[in-house]
Amino acid sequence: MTAPRVYQTEAIIIKRIKLGEADRILTLYTPELGKLKAVAKGTRRTQSKLGGHVELLTHSHLMLARGRNLDIITQAQTINNFLPIKDDLERISRGLYVAELVDSFTGEHIEDHRLFDLVLETLKQLSQTNDFEFVLRYFELRLLDHLGYRPQLQQCTECNSPLRPETNFFSPNHGGVLCRDCGFQEPAACPLSLNALKVLRLWQDCDYATARRVKISPELASELEQVMREHIKYLLERQLKSTAWLDKLKREIQPK
Question: Rounded distance, CA 237 to CA 230, Å?
Fold first, then answer.
C-alpha cells in the first residue's frame, strides 16, 4: 500500500540547522513516527508564516508532504510554545539539554508514544517549576529506563550481593552500583552515598508528582548530576555539547 503523499502529525522540534539562505532542516520528535527530519522552507525570513510555529522546543501540529530526500512542512499550528522556557536562560538551557538527549539516544522512524509523552511532560515541568535539576535527573533516569539502559540499583553488578545501607560505588561500565568491596577494586567507579542511592531508586520507578516530594540538598543534587553525567557519557561515548553551556550558566549565577 502506497503511503499518502501528505500526512499530519504532532511534533516537538528538538533541533534545527540552516539550509540555504532562507530554509531550515528541523529534527522532529513525534508520537507515531518517532524522530524524523523535515525541511521548513522560508522560516529564516521574518515574514514566514511557519516560523513561529516551528521554533525549538515547540509542540506543534504539522502537515508534511513527502519529498525525495526529506519531507517538507507545508502547514504548522502551535499547540504549546512553552514560553516560560524560552523567556528564561536557565530554563532554555535545560530544555535544549533534554532535546539533545532525545536526539542522541534515538534512531529515526521508531514509533514511541511513551517517550513522546515523557518529553512533553518534561517540557511542561520545566515551564512550571524552578527545581530544574530535579526535572533533569528524573528525565535522565526515565529516558534510560525506557530505552533499555536501566541502571542496576538493587544489587552489586559484580558479585550480585544485595547492597548494604552504606556508601557504595557507581560504575558506568558495569551499568550500575558496585558494593563497597567490589567498588574499591574498580578505579573508574565513584562513591555513591546512601541518600543518592535511595533517591535514584525512588525516581527510577515513580511519577513526577511522587518524585517532586523528595527534598534534595545542593550537595546531593551535585552528586546525582555527576553520577548521571558520567553514566550518559559512557553510554554515548561522548559528552553532550549542551552540558558545557549548563556548567557555564551555573558558574555565572553562583553568588560571589
Answer: 10
The residue to which cell 525525495 is assigned? 68
The angle formed by the CA atoms of residues 253, 237 and 103, to the nearest 5 degrees, is: 70
pTM: 0.94
Question: How crowded is residue 209: how many other Cβ atoms within 10 Å of its Cβ?
Answer: 7
Distance CA 41, CA 73 (A): 7
Residue 238: count other Cβ atoms within 10 Å of its Cβ: 10
Of 22, 59, 66, the residue nearest 40 (C-alpha): 22
Residue found by looking up cell 534515538 in the block = 106
Rounded Cα gap, residues 241 and 11, in angstroms: 23
What is the SS3 assignment for 13-80?
EEEEEEECCCEEEEEEEECCCEEEEEEECCCCCCCCCCHHHCCCCCEEEEEEECCCCCEEEEEEEEEE
**Contact (CB, 8 A) for 33 and 4:** no
What is the Cα–Cα distance from 227 to 195, expressed in whole angstroms? Answer: 13
The gap from C-alpha 163 to its chain's centroid, in whole angstroms, comes to: 29
- Report in angstroms the alpha-carbon separations of 149 from 16, 29, 140, 235: 27, 20, 10, 8
- What amino acid is encoded at 41 in this protein? K
Q: How far is residue 98's CA from residue 67's CA, in Å, rounded to a whole number?
A: 29
Q: Can you list the alpha helix ranges (DSSP code H) found in the chain?
A: 83-86, 89-105, 113-128, 132-146, 180-183, 194-205, 208-212, 218-236, 242-253
Q: What is the pLDDT of residues 57-112, one digit of tens each?
A: 999 999 999 998 999 999 999 999 999 999 999 999 999 999 999 999 999 999 99
